[in-house]
Sequence to fold (483 residues):
Amino acid sequence: MVKAGKILLSVVGDLLPIVVVLAIFQGLVLRRPVRRPMQIAIGLILLIAGLALVLHGLENTVFPLGRVVAEGLAAGLGEATPGRVFWLYLFIGALGFAAALAEPVLTAVVHRATQLSSGAIRPWGLRLAVATGIGLGACLGLLRMMLDWPLFPVLLVLFVVLYLQAQVTPRMIVNLALDAGVVTISTVTAPLLVAVGIGVATQLDGGSATDGFGLLAVTAAGPAVTVMGYAQLAAWRGQYSR
Amino acid sequence: MWRLILDLLQAMRESTLTIVPLAVVLLGFAWLLGTALPAFSELLLGAVVLVVGLALVVKGLELTLFPLAEGIAYDFVSKGSLYWLLLFVFTLGFGATIAEPALAAVAVQVAQTALAEGQILAGEVSSFSWGLRLATALGIALGGMLGIIRILRGWPLPLLLLLLLLPLSALVMLAPPLFSKLAFDMGISAMSTLAVPVIVALGIGLAGSLAQRSPLVDGFGMVSLALLLPPLCVLLWGCFW
Fold:
């Protein structure tokens, strides 16, 4: 009971600054009443209850399991056999893919994008493209860590690739694709990936936990590449069938 | 009322589909490694809690933060007070980030690790973690402002991101190596389940209420700046550390 109260309190504390800033500007600066106050009130209750449930479920079921598996796979990386390393990459890729799909903010943003495009953007297609990108991005992030490549040059190359790819992608999708990484790496995905990253970093030769940083930044570029790729594929297929 | 219940059931069907892959991956690998699994009843309870919780969060976001933020952007435009809009997004970005518990936890953890590795002194832990939070919050706030200006001016986002890498390359070389390592993760760690929808919706609302911009084409792109602006601020701060 005490724990549930603590989670609820932290959710409310998280929501409070956003609601206060919104209320101050809506009321004092704009002096406009809030539209549909009843809907907002119901929605806030759903949001607070939902976030508390999600945090509870993640902390009691998902994160412990993720940590155990990550530690199990990272242990013995010292005498890394190719087989072990393969399973580690398969795990972080699959984990990134699956966690991205479960991310509630991605679901909400995908719904909005589908509405705004009046159905031209397929919700599951977009979602799978994003999730694939998180999985591949996490693998690349892990590769960078294990080979000890410096972070910034890798990011620089990724952003140049994104810039070039954006030149040949339908404009409708470019900004959405660039947002997808930050949108998705959130409540579910970030802690799971960081757990694997820290687990691996501390096992590497002369490794320290600070080597675990940079995993999220590289992962975030993944969905941008795959979502633009998905849009290009859809555009080409459209031309071909015509 | 009925409408809401039907919507929630629909959302739960969707959230069930979205957590199946996560369950398969975690349980599959745990089974392969021969890890002791929690009791079946506990796993089932966890799954039900997550399915209901995720559905409520998605619906809650769609009923509150999305329409509120889109509406406020529309109100700022119709009132013609774009400077207030910039002040609003700065306050929102800074306030939400500085209060974000996930970022606070990351900052403390980073400071502890840096201390353990002898990169900072024992007396500097608290000022280091606070500096990290302040720099990140400033970066998110400035990123929000830059995002609004980009929509107003119609600048292309990919080019803007590429240009931001120029000052970043210089700062990466000037700042101590510790900062270059951690700076690029800070913005992502700071953007939570609540901050992201508000900022995304603000962009959509702004682009939607300007006649010459499209909410889909121009409105997205706000949160991608959280990848580069917080590192910029963290590295700048690092140069003076």
In short: Chain B touches chain A through 108 residues (CB under 8 Å).
